[in-house]
Amino acid sequence: xxxxxxxxxxxxxxxxxxxxxxxxxxxxxxxxxxxxxxxxxxxxxxxxxxxxxxxxxxxxxxxxxxxxxxxxxxxxxxxxxxxxxxxxxxxxxxxxxxxxxxxxxxxxxxxxxxxxxxxxxxxxxxxxxxxxxxxxxxxxxxxxxxxxxxxxxxxxxxxxxxxxxxxxxxxxxxxxxxxxxxxxxxxxxxxxxxxxxxxxxxxxxxxxxxxxxxxxxxxxxxxxxxxxxxxxxxxxxxxxxxxxxxxxxxxxxxxxxxxxxxxxxxxxxxxxxxxxxxxxxxxxxxxxxxxxxxxxxxxxxxxxxxxxxxxxxxxxxxxxxxxxxxxxxxxxxxxxxxxxxxxxxxxxxxxxxxxxxxxxxxxxxxxxxxxxxxxxxxxxxxxxxxxxxxxxxxxxxxxxxxxxxxxxxxxxxxxxxxxxxxxxx
Length: 425
Known about the structure:
CATH topology of the largest domain: Transcription Regulator spoIIAA
Order of helices and strands: EHEEHEHEHEEHEHEHEHEHHEHEHEEEEE
Shape: globular
Strand order of the largest sheet: 2-1-3-4-5-6
Strand content: 15-25%
Radius of gyration: 22 Å
CATH class of the largest domain: Alpha Beta
Mean pLDDT: 95
Distance between the termini: 48 Å
Structural class: alpha/beta
């Protein structure tokens, strides 16, 4: 049978979709483009914003329209919180994705619609998934953790993903060892709240990283995202003294105003953020720091936004992923007074993007003439590109093979912050 899969949202969703693809292939299902005519459509949904819900419903409708006779499966965050709104034959939340084969078989045997939604805030164990290879990816993602206990006031994820639960320590080591043996040179550790790995199984992320760097032939480990208050002195020391850990940290700031951080229920203030960043940068040479930022949060005044701009210019992030605050039903922030006008939010986003572009250019331009070890791949435009340890994307001037390590000297940066490099033989 032909199966088309569409995945919305985060890297964890991408990982889980890859796992489902591998399962289906191992059971003789044919994977086809989601846009083609298939016998089964699977939509791995997202619910981080109201707009994500809209997109999830849209993809389910498109599957129905493409082949009215097809089996339509909706799973993930949107269906976890709104299972009755999904027009699908099989509805799964964020549990039992690993049982997709037997669930499909059950449906095909009796033809009855299936809905499996669990209370993920209860004592639900981590759902093990293990991937040996990734389609069309040079780097491999490993989901080590699920769930979140933070309850930021703008976020629905603690309800869609449930409480924190971690993959077994030995299982992580085994999965990454197999991926390295299968030729993957970069492993990206991902989760819903990656920095909290191990809190439910009597270990922690620092302990895991210290073991991962010992895996034979492992080249690079990258953290997908980590909170500022979860970067321990031990992690800083490990990054300082071990080249296997990528010289790049993605640390969400979310706001540059202490007032707004408190309203968001973030677990730090600006003074803590500044001091920890200073420690990281003084210890780890050539590190790149990127971030996430929300503008237009309820009660964000012009003065609060000015404080954010001042904060961004003080920190000089390599890149800022900025989003206008999006009201999310079911969260505390959605009921707050003083919601910010949409046009004001758009204006603030534009201003932050200009700052991001300025400091990104500065970071890249300061490294012209430097030579880096680069992990290579071919992008969708046919260019030979690669990423450095500190996550600089470089277009390489000569032909290279995918998934190789080559030395590249940065030669110039254009007005669009595209970095060019010369292959060093």
